[in-house]
Amino acid sequence: MKYKITKLEPFGALIESAMPGLDIGELNIEVIRELFLQEQIVLIRGFQGFANPDDFSKYCEQFGEISIWPFGKVLELVQQDEPLDHIFDNSYVPLHWDGMYRTQVPEYQIFHCVKAPSPGQGGRTIFSNTIKVLENLSQDMRENWKSISGIYKRKMEFYNSKVISPLITRHPYRNFDVIRYNEVHNPDRGKLINIPDISFTGLKEKELVKVFKDLDKLLYNPKNSYAHEWRDADIVIADNFTLLHGREAFKLNAPRHIQRVQVLSNPPFDNPHLETLK
Ligand SMILES: [Fe+2]
């Protein structure tokens, strides 16, 4: 066998090449898709990385229709000298789901690591499995959480949107509930520029404070979340309908370069929570 498949902890699948630099074409797309549906994350490691963004996006097209942004298909996640948004800073990024502020919500997030920070420099991507969080929630807590909706406003280079979303919603195409939450900025995690405007309805302020504490504890609990430490040429495929994701801060000017493509579901999922988009 040219590659082996093992489990990641606490969830996810790792497909590792048996010989360094194996062509990614050796890997059957349907094998990846099946693992994606079962495990929510697939890490593909030890294969030949993509030489340029075009090669990467062409590969991603095999999974479905790519979500197109004003900048094109591939987002270059790299620290900028004078960032206008936390995405392009070296700060942490609060948990969120991709496309929450856009007209369509992608199902697949596909990342390619062009250059990983050195060990100890931070910059792990955090994926929180909301199925796992909900599985172990008491009936009381679930009832409480079900009554909450988030009102999210965010303006950045590519959109200016308002979104109203229940904290717990149904997965658009599968038979289970998921959490949709854009984490409130927590100064304990460090600085953050261009902070989204976030408020909640459904419970009294005091009860909401308790919910945020519980959310923080459960979403980041190592039993429910996978923190991915990048290596050069890693490819990570993550289920954006089920997981929330964020980023750990990293050392200033650490060589962290990740490319990201979003692939839509089939049929594409129109964002049901989008109120306004300017
Ligand atoms: Fe994101």
How would you describe what is shown here?
The longest helix is centred in the last third of the chain and has 16 residues, at 205-220. The model has no long low-confidence stretch (mean pLDDT 95). The protein is built from 5 helices and 19 strands. By secondary structure, it is α+β, with helices and mostly antiparallel strands. A 7-stranded mixed sheet has the order 1-2-3-15-7-17-4. It has a 4-stranded antiparallel sheet with strand order 5-16-8-14. A 4-stranded antiparallel sheet has the order 13-9-10-19, with no helix packed on it. The chain has a single domain, classed as 4-Layer Sandwich (Double-stranded beta-helix). Bound molecules: fe (ii) ion. The site of fe (ii) ion has 3 residues, from loops.
Overall helicity? 10-25%
| Radius of gyration from the alpha-carbon trace, in angstroms | 18 Å
Name the CATH class: Alpha Beta
Which shape, going by the Cα principal axes?
A: globular
**Low-pLDDT residue intervals, each spanning 5 or more residues:** none
- What integer is the average pLDDT? 95
Terminal CA distance reads 51 Å
Derived structural class: alpha+beta
Number of domains: 1
CATH architecture field: 4-Layer Sandwich
CATH topology term:
Double-stranded beta-helix
Largest sheet: 7 strands, mixed
Q: Main sheet: which strands, in order across?
A: 1-2-3-15-7-17-4
Work out the helix count.
5
Order of helices and strands: EEHEHEEEEEHHEEEEEHEEEEEE
Strand content: 25-35%
Find the CATH superfamily.
Clavaminate synthase-like
The ligands found in this model are: fe (ii) ion
